[in-house]
Amino acid sequence: MADATATARAEIMRLHRAPEPEVLAPLLKDAALDSEERRRVENRALGMLADLRSAQSSGWVNQFLQEYRLNTSEGIALLSLAEAFLRVPDPETADQLIADKLGNADWKSHAGKSHSTLVNSATWGLVIGRALVSDSEQASSLKRLIARAGEPFVRQAVGAAMRMMGEIFVMGRTIEEAVARMKKRENRGFTASFDMLGEAARTFPDAERYYRAYEDAIHAVGRHAKEGHSISVKLSALHPRYEVAQYERCVPALTEQVEALAALAKRYGIAFTIDAEESERLDMSLDIIGSIAGLPALKGWDGLGMAVQAYGKRCRPTLAWADAIGAATGRRIAVRLVKGAYWDSEIKHTQEQGLSDYPLFTRKAATDVSYLACAKDMLRAKNIYPAFATHNALTVATILEWAGDSRDFEFQRLHGMGEGLYESLVREQGYHTRIYAPVGGHRDLLAYLVRRLLENGANSSFVHQLADERMTDAEILADPVAKIASVGGTRHPSIPLPEDLFAPERKNSEGIDLNDRQELQRVAQFVQSPLAFRAGGEDRTPAADGAGNVTRPQHAPDPDRRLATAAVERALGGFPSWSMQSIEHRAACLDRLADLLERERDHLMALAVQEARKTIPDALGEVREAVDFCRYYAAQARSGLQPIELPGPTGERNVIRMEGRGAWVCIAPWNFPLAIFLGQVTAALVAGNTVVAKPAPQTPEIAAYAVGLAHSAGVPEDALVLAIGGPSVGQALMEDVRIAGVAFTGSTATAKRIARTLLEDDERPIIPLIAETGGINAMIVDSTALPEQVVADVVTSSFRSAGQRCSALRVLLLQEEIADRTLEMLSGAMDTLVVGDPADPKTDVGPVIDQGAYDRLMAHRNAKQNSWLKTIPVPEDGLFVPPTLIAVPELEAVRHEHFGPLLHVTTWKAGQLPETIARVNSTGFGLTMGLHSRIARAAEAVEDVAKVGNLYVNRSMIGAIVGSQPFGGEGLSGTGPKAGGPHYLPRFCAERVTSIDTTSSGGNATLLSLEDVGL
Ligand SMILES: Cc1cc2nc3c(=O)[nH]c(=O)nc-3n(C[C@H](O)[C@H](O)[C@H](O)COP(=O)(O)OP(=O)(O)OC[C@H]3O[C@@H](n4cnc5c(N)ncnc54)[C@H](O)[C@@H]3O)c2cc1C
Question: Partner of 125 at 20 to 30 A CA spacing, among 117, 470, 677, 859?
């Protein structure tokens, strides 16, 4: 049997990202019905549709979806309001949120229209709310009335509407309440699986709280064991770092916790099911479930269950694995077959990570086919107790057809949904159906509810189609097998493979699946292997500024000047022939370089880890960004640098051309020693310039390797000349009056020095300087933001890369009312961080770049010791700066950029968003800014007035993608144009216009021969 589990695991691996048609071919065969079966299934499903429709008076979701379609502004407004409203503590922001969400929607047209009193009551709350937030005459009198009543009426009305929505979906606020409610008439004949509501844990105390909630739930359910209820367990709630990179600590810890819960459940004789989560967690879940199933202490307990997602390409072998594990451990595993709840986010993550293919199907009908074929497998499997979780009548009818007379399985539905579908099956035909029943407070419920509604609001969803009066029964019950067979199982045409995301312009950079444990281990081993360092920077620890590019000396000493002069001479010598090459030739060199970078990715990552001390994910990001730069600038050059013919009087030809200016100097920082280095260089090259490239003195090896690859890709050696050295080489290069332009990324002080040097000599021409400098980047968080999301984004933005990104968050501005709660969660999240060797896959925060940086950061940190809100321990050996939260009385107290994992925190007052943005603007820096708010108008307001190059709303502030988020600041943060954007290349070019008189004298002879058209 061990063989069977191993075979299934191998198949799980093989199908993970296999092409969709290949995965679907066998499933299609098994899901197909013959014409007799199809007729019976259709008839049965038609009956169910009728039942469902007649149950709609109690089917709140259907009512809701019917009244507020999610593609209307009302539907969306209601959902966004529901998601945020109950967590907003302060009235001022609550009012703004209401105004924002209700303001533009037409609630009145919905009032009284629904068959459901509940929907109507909720709607009236919204109508009044809407009236109160508008500026109309009517609103003013209503407001006066309410002011007299002295009641914050609008908030109460909306709050009541939101709570009403909540009540429908929550089985009880406590487990006792929920167990009691299952005894009510509406639930007669059903059993429940109770789920503890909440987001995934972000901190260890959160995880402990969840653990205790599960324990309590088992006790409570256990006391009523005869009633047959069970519980559902979400592993991500039990560990704040349930991630592949943290496998060694989270899997054993979770196994221990699940074992304890399982032992308790066994004692009471109740069952529990482990929920299915994101696809990257599947392998870890299987390892945990496999260990639990094998425990001798749990022998004889048939209550162990797991959810399996049919939208995943690995669904079928996962079931085979469950069957094999059951056989090997002498038990039936209870498998809940679901379609899957993370479809859109999985698609997005796969695209972001540039992976080879999706782990799940891209057509809804393919998921249905997979579900049916897998349901058939489950009905046949000896060691699986099947539970079919669906609200889809066709799916249910097909399963009933295949199950025949058997009752040895159950159906499951979500509480609040699918009413009408199962009642007669349960009460008249004796089928067993379980209700998945969320337990918890309204605040936690609403995030869950919104996800459910969004999922079911999708056009392709069965529940949505049922509520859509325009859909015929035949359309709703269309055969998924026929649908998929008709397209040969191919991927959905609107969901390109990640590599084609930017097609036809260019290929996307290829990622590595770092959530594949074997792949991660392989990469880790490679980046840890010793490399021969050859380039040999002469000065690895200069007293550098933030980005390691100081040009402190007034005038360069002779050897550095000789090196610089020789480099410039070489590049000048290469200019005539390189600039004469066609745009296509130069662009093709960049495309070849991109391919070489991908071929050499492992080696380049090893260099980034060992030389620049990047963590593995950062090193991968570095290579991918460099590849994207090459392909993006190649594509931009092909489309944007071609000569353009301009209009003019007859007999004249006017053409504007974009040509290289001469020899450029590109000065790159150590924090992106490959991506920024090559970004500058390739842009200059493709525009027809030759380049002297000076990497940061800390990172010469990776630069030398990249230059070698560029030469192999066809860039002549005298078109790209490497000048390795410290600040004085940079200074000498700047002093060389023959250079044609400078692209610099580093500190503001150095950029200013460069600008002065370029103007020093009266005789030299004025040349372009593209400077990307630092920033005092702020994130503003208001009380509508989701704290879990804020905390995750703050940790990423301020501590990833040890805070050594220009875009990193430096000052967190929290609205006063939510500051304590957010800081508590943020502190807890910091406790989960691993600080250590960057080559270790589990490391979140590595060391800082050099001793100089370490000393400066530690000096600042130590000076602020009295203001520490939180810090965490770090290894003693190495340049590890402890991630630290530092309280500051006001934003203005942060005067300089501190280029490391030190985050300053201060607060702002409700209603003072405009003033707060103005204060951020007045720092003079303008690189990145973050905003977390559910108020759309807040985002618009910030967008209108913030003077920053890159504004990030409700996401982290780092990780700009070439071509999607062109990057660069303004004010003290840089000159622009933005790297990776459409306006970058022209800055490297000389624009030349030729105007030719095409007539020998006077007019244009061709005019005289024009035909008399239209006379
Ligand atoms: C009791 C119960 C427990 C659940 N537990 C879990 C769980 O542990 N983990 C989990 O992930 N989900 C879980 N779910 C959620 C479940 O996955 C969704 O509710 C379910 O997918 C809806 O399926 P349906 O058959 O009711 O609806 P249908 O409308 O027939 O199917 C909708 C589903 O199709 C899939 N889909 C939509 N568009 C596409 C597309 N373009 N390509 C491919 N597939 C697409 C999605 O999975 C979507 O949810 C559970 C559901 C129930 C009822």
Answer: 470
- The strand pairing partners of 309, in sequence order, are 338
Residue 626 and residue 608: Cα distance in Å, rounded?
12
Alpha-carbon distance of 563 to 543, in angstroms, equals 21
Torsions phi, psi for 665 (to 5 deg):
-110, 125
Q: CA neighbours within 13 Å on the CB side: how many for 353?
A: 18
Mutate to test the pocket of ligand 1, among 338, 388, 422 (most ligand atoms within 8 A of CB): 338
CA of 366 to the centre of ligand 1 (A): 12
Cα 487 to ligand 1 centroid, rounded to whole Å: 22
Enter the DSSP assignment of 962.
T
User: Residue holding tokens 């006792």?
Assistant: 176
Please tell me the residue having the least CA distance from ligand 1 atom 31: 461
Q: Is the CB of 807 under 6 A from ligand 1?
A: no
Q: Rounded to whole angstroms, how far apart are CA atoms 419 and 425?
A: 12
**Which residues are within 8 A (CB) of 912 and not within 5 positions of it... i.e. 6 or more apart?**
none
Structure tokens at 639: 């489309």
| DSSP secondary structure letters along 369-427 | HHHHHHHHHHHH-TTEEEEEE---HHHHHHHHHHHTT---SEEEEETTS-TTTSHHHHH
Reading phi first (left if > 0) and then psi (alpha if -120 to 50, else beta), residue 159 is in alpha
The CA distance from 61 to 462, in Å, is: 12
Tokens of 782: 């208001």
- What would the two tokens of residue 133 be? 């937030």
Count of helices and strands (H, E) across the chain: 38, 25
CA 277 to centroid of ligand 1, rounded, Å: 12
User: By the 8 A CB rule, do 437 and 178 touch?
Assistant: yes
- Tell me if 383 CB under 6 Å of ligand 1: no
CB of 579 sitting under 6 A from ligand 1: no
Long-range pairs for 181-190 at CB < 8 Å and ≥24 separation? 182/227, 182/229, 182/435, 182/437, 186/58, 187/435, 188/427, 189/423, 189/426, 189/427, 189/433, 190/422, 190/426, 190/433, 190/434, 190/435
- Check if 392 has its Cβ closer than 6 Å to any atom of ligand 1: yes
Per-residue tokens: 838? 């960057």
Q: Give the dihedral sign, CA 55/59/64/70.
A: negative
| Cβ within 8 Å of residue 428, ≥6 positions away | none
Distance from Cα 364 to the centre of ligand 1, integer Å: 10
Helix axes 35-54, 393-403, angle to 10 degrees: 130
Atom number in ligand 1 closest to CA 310: 47
User: CA-to-CA distance for 653 and 359, rounded, in angstroms?
Assistant: 56
- Residue nearest ligand 1's atom 50 by CA: 338
Return d(Cα 727, Cα 694) in angstroms, integer: 10
361 in ligand 1 pocket by Cβ < 6 Å? yes
- Ligand 1 contact via 701 beta carbon (within 6 Å): no
Q: Give the Cα separation of 228 and 221 in Å (integer).
A: 9
CA distance 726 to 166: 63
C-beta of residue 411 within 8 angstroms of C-beta of residue 385: no
Answer whether the bond into residue 649 is a cis peptide, omega within 30°. Answer: no
Residues with catalytic function: 772, 806
Looking at residue 542, what is its pLDDT?
40
CA atoms within 13 A on the CB side of 153: 21
pLDDT at res. 152: 62
pLDDT at residue number 1005: 65
Across the chain, which has 1015 residues, the per-10-residue mean pLDDT values are 89 98 98 96 95 70 60 68 84 85 65 57 54 52 48 67 72 91 92 88 95 96 94 96 98 98 96 96 98 95 96 98 97 97 95 98 98 98 97 96 96 88 92 94 72 73 84 95 96 97 97 97 95 58 43 67 97 98 98 98 98 98 98 98 94 95 98 98 98 97 98 98 96 97 96 96 94 96 95 98 98 98 98 98 98 98 98 97 98 96 98 96 96 93 95 96 96 96 98 89 66 59
